[in-house]
Amino acid sequence: MPLVSIVLGSKSDEAVVQPTAMLLNDLGIEHEIVVASAHRTPERVREFGLTARDRGVEVIIAAAGGAAALPGALASWTTLPIIGVPVASSELKGVDALYAIAQMPPGVPVACMAIGDWGARNAALFAAQILGLKYDKIREAYDAYRKRQAAG
Ligand code: RP5
């Protein structure tokens, strides 16, 4: 049963979240990858958002490019924490997605990571921090990751 769901605005975003999936694997966090577009398949976004918690998902990572409405649209259907990753798939190189995700109006928040690879990696680590509040094994795996990082 996946604890983390990585939702992509398009199959074309998949390469960006490979580091996310790898880090989640390293930290022993079960996850899935789903494609659901806020503007092309809004019904799929709705269905996903309404059912995610009942399927056991506890954190959602949403990666999208362009005028990335996906993280906010998901947040309209669920109160699970949403971590947004802006993807540099447009002429604006992800700045459009960064603004769209970071500038959510008050009341329906989403977390916003950095554009592209940095954000993709930090999304996995941020998910681990959230899940570590509840799961000792994940906290220990994340603490060990940070210690290895500090050791260089
Ligand atoms: C967004 O538009 C997706 O998240 C993707 O980053 C971008 C381009 O999508 P495709 O046209 O490649 O499907 O919706």
Explain how this protein is built.
This protein has six helices and five strands, in the order E-H-E-H-E-H-E-H-E-H-H. The longest helix has 17 residues, at 116-132. It has a five-stranded parallel beta sheet with strand order 2-1-3-4-5. It is 43% helix and 16% strand. The chain has one domain: 3-Layer(aba) Sandwich (Rossmann fold). The mean pLDDT is 98. It is of the alpha/beta class and 152 residues long. 5-O-phosphono-beta-D-ribofuranose binds at residues 9-10, 12-13, 37, 64-66, 87, 89.
Determine the strand fraction and express it as a percent band: 15-25%
Structural class: alpha/beta
* Model regions low in confidence, pLDDT < 50 over at least 5 residues: none
Span of the ends, CA to CA = 34 Å
The number of distinct helices, counting runs of at least 4 residues, comes to 6
CATH class: Alpha Beta
Please trace the helix and strand order, writing H or E for each element: EHEHEHEHEHH
Domain module tally:
1
Largest sheet data: 5 strands, parallel
Bound molecules: 5-O-phosphono-beta-D-ribofuranose
CATH architecture: 3-Layer(aba) Sandwich
Q: Approximately how much helix is present in the residues? A: 40-55%
